[in-house]
Amino acid sequence: MHAYLHFGVRSFRRAITYRAATLAGMATNFFFGLVRAMIFAAFYEAAVAPPDMPVEQAVSYVWLVQAILGLGFWPFFSDPFIADIRTGAVAMQLLRPVDYQGCWFAHSVARLLQMTLMRGVPIGALAMALGFLAPPPSWESAGLFVLSLGAGMVLAVALAQVTGAIAFWTLDATGPSGLMSVLTMFLSGMLVPIALWPAWLAEVAHFSPFPGLTDTPLSIYLGRYVGPEALGAIGLQWLWAAAMLLVARGLISRGFSRLEIQGG
Amino acid sequence: MRELRHLLSVYFHAIGVRLKGQMQYRVSFLTETAAQALVTGLDFAALAVLFSRFSNLRGWSLWEVGLLYAIVHASFSLAELAARGFDTFSRQVREGAFDGSLIRPHSPFFMTLCSDFHARRLGRLAQALTVGIVCSAKAGVVWTPDQVLLFIGALIGGACFFVALFVIGATLCFWTVESIELINIFTHGGIEAANVPISIYRTWFRNVFVFVVPLAWVNYFPALHILQRTDPLGFPPVVQVLAPLVGMMFLCLARLVWTVGVRHYQSTGS
Amino acid sequence: MIQATDLTKDFRIARHRPGLLGALRALVVPEFTVVRAVDRVSFHIARGELVGYIGPNGAGKSTSVKMLTGILTPTSGRATVGGRDPQRQRRDNALRMGVVFGQRTHLWWDLPVIESFELLRRMYKVSLERYRENLDTFNDLLDLSSFFQTPVRQLSLGQRMRADIAAALLHDPEVLFLDEPTIGLDIVAKQRVRQFIETINRERRVTILLTTHDVSDVERLCSRVIVIDRARIIHDGPLTALRRRTDSHRTLVVDFAQEHADLSLAGAQLVEHDGRRATYRVPAETAPAVIARVLSEYAVADLSVRETEIEEVVRRLYEGARG
């Protein structure tokens, strides 16, 4: 356990030097936030009856999406663990005493944490300072939001592992990762908050793990889920995360056996 | 004229060779193209969801906005298909490959244009055009010959606009080692902004895209004419027909900037 | 054919200052140091010559070649290639010259070799007939067909070099610039490339400027060598003249028939003594006389006279210039 913690901290430190959230990248996010907020505001002018989500919340939602973008966009192509699986170099891991999934998990969480903090904090702070983003309505919401964000990160890593593990079987990782990106971007609520979706589509989304990446934590932030409802939502995030981690574990061990049979 | 014909034949040969090579990997080619189409179609899907909740966007219907979406996405895909060499230019400069463009009997602009091609962008182009055709039908567009001509002109002008952005982005690589991601704000950010009528934005924001970086001329003005709408911004209707020219002029400007960059490279080395 | 007159190239290198404050200062008020990479280099190469251009790393070889090929603009001085200015008439010049850079290829990375050739054929407007003739000839000499279909990025170093040289000659250039064409190659590959260069020069009268780090390239191929060190030319002339300038001594190795206690020779410096073999260092002029004396005074089983290795000669030249 201690080894994984150490590995995670080292990955975190190294990830900071990547400067993944470059100034230009953040500027791009900021621009997207501006554009999308204006588009939403313009749409709301046509609202005949007030929708479930008031315009202020929708605008805040848009800015929050830009801040925590790291949860929805998994950098599949720069993930060294997935690259190893694709190239077959992962066979060397069979010789190591550490758990492959554990290492991968620690590394990924560290990296995601770094990306989210380095991007989210500046963008969030700037958006708040400019009055685009409203702070959470209560300390309770703020606290629950942090919990939900954490759960969301674990879920994101779990989904990435499932996607990446498929590379044990396919030569090319672009298929599964492309599909995963599409599903994630849409069903997580990154483009449009699920509160604004037609009911039947929202139902479909709620049967998938994806809302836990974006819509759930952000709805908690906005105070749309409070108290037991919020805790239930967070619980659901953890449930999905655990399930996906198990699936990933199964895939990885199956993948390793396949490698062993093939002779590595 | 003969020179132009020669350049075109070399250019299309360079593209053709790569297209042939990429199509050999049939499965990979198809999945990548399909994935491209899906991912870029999400923008339209998001708009559809919003339109199902809100009936219109400042008086524009989903179908009318769909035409805007189609033109800008198709223009961008054409630009990516035609000029990928400029998109990947930062790597070329870093690896010292640009010298190779200077020892050939063609302009370094032309050499860079011929230096790369990726067929997978065809997915996005096909998807954008499909959406465009469907939406324009639902919006009640009558495709008279002059409308068709304007549509094609808009695509060409729009492609010129995006190629110009690629060229400017590539030129910046002559000065800094880091590839400037700032250009992404104008390409991907620009597409995001142009998916909807540019008239919905605040004045200061809108004016940048009308007067400085001519994004509005890519799809907004031509669409107004095709949809037979009056311009809420109050520009004279003639600009709608002349819009494609603005993209082409922007490309000429970018070409000049590029020449400055090449001269700088030749005096300072790599 | 190639004329360089007081060709000079200065580079302005931005000074990097340490620390955060330094970095900020460097951004706002950049300071430059001027490095002179090529200093008033002048030479004339006639049509059909095969000239070697050697010098230590960083001497200015590649920079001079880049100016002659139109890649870099000179700070001052002039260059003409075939009567054309490589900068002002870059495209005209490019049509009639070939360039090979040993460090990296300028063929298209992602295309098969034959497709790169095809593309070049079109760019240089080579007639199909002439293209096929050249391709056949080069294939005979360099055995290219075995990797025609291989993408350039997958070629071995030796294959890539052969492809590069063939590509540079497809359009029948008048002038060929070879920048380190044998770098990293094994002996067999080097031999093949050298043979090809020699053939091209002899049969097609292509003027060749061969820049190389490897002095034995020059020794095998060039009758004339230009030596550059620290941006300046320190020698321009036949290889023999180079020797004469720095190579004043010969090495004499004598295998005596019998053991001798005292193997000293008048007019010769005994360098080494191992059993019956003695190695002497003798001034070049007196070497014949010393040899005659040894043969007449002693019973000799074997005798050899060696010139100093060319690398040694060149090294002495650098040292002489710097001293």
How would you characterize the overall build of this protein?
The complex is a heterotrimer of chains A (264), B (270) and C (323). Chain A is 69% helix and 0% strand. Chain A contains 10 helices and no strands. Chain A has helices at 2-18, 23-44, 55-67, 80-87, 100-129, 139-165, 174-187, 199-206, 215-221, 227-262. In chain A, helix 3 packs across helix 5. Chain A starts with a helix and ends with a helix. Chain B is globular, with a radius of gyration of 19 Å. Chain C is 37% helix and 29% strand. The mean pLDDT of chain C is 86. Chains in contact: A-B, B-C. The interface between A and B is medium-sized, with 36 and 33 residues.
List the helices and strands and how they pair.
The complex is a heterotrimer of chains A (264), B (270) and C (323).
Chain A: H1 2-18, H2 23-44, H3 55-67, H4 80-87, H5 100-129, H6 139-165, H7 174-187, H8 199-206, H9 215-221, H10 227-262
Chain B: H1 2-23, H2 26-53, H3 62-82, H4 84-87, H5 89-94, H6 98-102, H7 108-113, H8 121-138, H9 145-172, H10 182-194, H11 203-212, H12 216-226, H13 238-268
Chain C: E1 2-14, H1 19-28, E2 32-45, E3 50-54, H2 61-68, E4 76-81, H3 90-95, E5 97-101, H4 113-123, H5 128-142, H6 157-169, E6 175-179, H7 187-204, E7 207-212, H8 215-221, E8 224-229, E9 232-238, H9 239-246, E10 249-256, E11 269-274, E12 277-283, H10 287-297, E13 300-306, H11 310-322
Parallel strand pairs in C: 3-7, 3-8, 5-6, 6-7
Antiparallel strand pairs in C: 1-2, 1-4, 8-9, 10-12, 10-13, 11-12
